[in-house]
Amino acid sequence: MQEKGRMRASGVLLHFTSLPSPHGIGDLGPWARAFADLLCEAKQKYWQFLPLLPPSSENSPYHPSSAFAGNVLLLSPEEMVKEGWLTREEALPSPLPHHRVDYPSVLSHKQKLFEKAYRNFRKKGAEDFEEFCAGNSWWLEDYSLFTVLSRRLGKPWTDWPEGLRNREGEALEKAGEELKEEVEKEKFLQYLFYRQWEGLRRYCHRRG
């Protein structure tokens, strides 16, 4: 028997990567809002999706490299244009496949966009960036350095030099200083993810 005062509701499971996109992979941008509108028009109350965590080398959201960070491949170039991190010319559609996700090509394409966005960030900054970093420092510092080291060393952390593998303070401090700009870029991308995700959440809540 239906509990008094509670209405039955239905929804759809669709991960963001399956949304249409001119950049080779679905993201948190215009098509996500369009799908939210479609759900609203169809009287669907719930949108279920897979974890939004950064996937490891297998590209599975169920095998992430962090339990707290967001998958930056879901960042929307269109939203970055809106916020002034990219120009429209820099965020032109890519020739990537539209019927499947070619992860290596998507990663290469988006890393170029991320580099441009970060350069623009370095020029003008963001008022709430430091606040975001301070509020999330308990995971953001380690995650950003780990991500950069993983990319630089190109091997599992168990095969890293002993000082880094064992998280020795001197080794971590030296690496953090040498890779300071790359680490800051990873923090910036997480800042963008937080802003885009929160923006989409607010939009969905307004749509009911």
Structure, described:
This protein has 208 residues and is an all-alpha fold. The protein has a single domain (11-207), classed as TIM Barrel (Alpha-Beta Barrel), CATH 3.20.20. The protein has 8 helices and 2 strands, in the order βαβααααααα. It has helices at 30-41, 77-82, 103-124, 129-135, 137-153, 162-165, 169-178, 180-207, and strands spanning 11-13, 46-48. The protein has a two-stranded parallel ribbon with strand order 1-2. β1, α1 and β2 form a beta-alpha-beta unit. α1 runs parallel beside α8 (180-207) and α5 (137-153) packs across α8 (180-207).
Write the layout of secondary structure elements.
Blueprint: E1 11-13, H1 30-41, E2 46-48, H2 77-82, H3 103-124, H4 129-135, H5 137-153, H6 162-165, H7 169-178, H8 180-207
Parallel strand pairs: 1-2
Short description:
Helix content is 51%, strand content 3%. It has helices at 30-41, 77-82, 103-124, 129-135, 137-153, 162-165, 169-178, 180-207, and strands spanning 11-13, 46-48.
Task: Looking at this protein, list some descriptive labels.
208 residues, two-stranded parallel sheet, mainly alpha, TIM Barrel
Class from helix and strand fractions:
mainly alpha
Strand neighbour order, sheet with most strands: 1-2
CATH superfamily: Glycosidases
Report the C-alpha radius of gyration, rounded. Answer: 19 Å
Shape label: globular
How many beta strands in the DSSP annotation?
A: 2
Considering DSSP H and I runs of 4 or more, what fraction of the residues is helical?
40-55%
The CATH first-level class comes to Alpha Beta
The assigned CATH architecture is Alpha-Beta Barrel
Q: How far is the first residue's CA from the last residue's CA?
A: 26 Å
As a percent range, the share of strand residues is under 5%
Low-confidence stretches: none
Mean pLDDT: 94
Per DSSP, the total helix count is: 8
